[in-house]
Protein backbone atom coordinates (compact mmCIF):
# COMPACT_ATOMS: atom_id res chain seq x y z
CA UNK A 1 0.00 0.00 0.00
CA UNK A 2 2.83 2.39 0.75
CA UNK A 3 4.37 1.64 -2.64
CA UNK A 4 1.24 3.07 -4.25
CA UNK A 5 2.71 6.56 -4.44
CA UNK A 6 6.30 5.53 -5.11
CA UNK A 7 7.67 7.26 -8.17
CA UNK A 8 9.10 5.12 -10.92
CA UNK A 9 12.74 5.54 -11.78
CA UNK A 10 13.79 6.70 -15.22
CA UNK A 11 14.95 3.17 -16.10
CA UNK A 12 11.55 1.69 -15.15
CA UNK A 13 9.76 4.24 -17.32
CA UNK A 14 12.05 3.51 -20.25
CA UNK A 15 11.63 -0.25 -19.85
CA UNK A 16 7.85 0.11 -19.97
CA UNK A 17 8.13 2.32 -23.07
CA UNK A 18 10.48 -0.24 -24.67
CA UNK A 19 8.04 -3.08 -24.05
CA UNK A 20 5.16 -1.04 -25.49
CA UNK A 21 7.15 -0.17 -28.63
CA UNK A 22 8.23 -3.77 -29.17
CA UNK A 23 4.62 -4.97 -28.91
CA UNK A 24 3.49 -2.31 -31.39
CA UNK A 25 6.31 -3.28 -33.75
CA UNK A 26 5.30 -6.93 -33.55
CA UNK A 27 1.64 -6.14 -34.21
CA UNK A 28 2.54 -3.91 -37.16
CA UNK A 29 4.86 -6.53 -38.63
CA UNK A 30 1.79 -8.51 -39.65
CA UNK A 31 0.33 -5.69 -41.75
CA UNK A 32 2.78 -2.85 -42.38
CA UNK A 33 6.44 -3.81 -42.43
CA UNK A 34 7.86 -0.30 -42.88
CA UNK A 35 5.90 1.05 -39.89
CA UNK A 36 7.07 -1.97 -37.90
CA UNK A 37 10.68 -1.18 -38.76
CA UNK A 38 10.17 2.40 -37.59
CA UNK A 39 8.76 1.26 -34.25
CA UNK A 40 11.61 -1.21 -33.87
CA UNK A 41 14.13 1.60 -34.46
CA UNK A 42 12.43 3.70 -31.77
CA UNK A 43 12.58 0.76 -29.38
CA UNK A 44 16.27 0.32 -30.16
CA UNK A 45 16.95 3.96 -29.23
CA UNK A 46 15.10 3.48 -25.93
CA UNK A 47 17.14 0.34 -25.26
CA UNK A 48 20.35 2.30 -25.79
CA UNK A 49 19.19 4.91 -23.26
CA UNK A 50 18.43 2.15 -20.75
CA UNK A 51 21.88 0.65 -21.23
CA UNK A 52 23.52 4.07 -20.81
CA UNK A 53 21.64 4.71 -17.57
CA UNK A 54 22.39 1.28 -16.12
CA UNK A 55 26.06 1.47 -17.10
CA UNK A 56 26.49 4.78 -15.31
CA UNK A 57 24.89 3.48 -12.10
UniProtKB/TrEMBL annotation:
Pfam families referenced in this protein's UniProt entry, alphabetically: DUF6435 (PF20027)
Source organism of the structure: Ulvibacterium marinum
Protein name: Lacal_2735 family protein
Coiled-coil spans in chain: 4-31
Record's keyword terms, sorted: Coiled coil
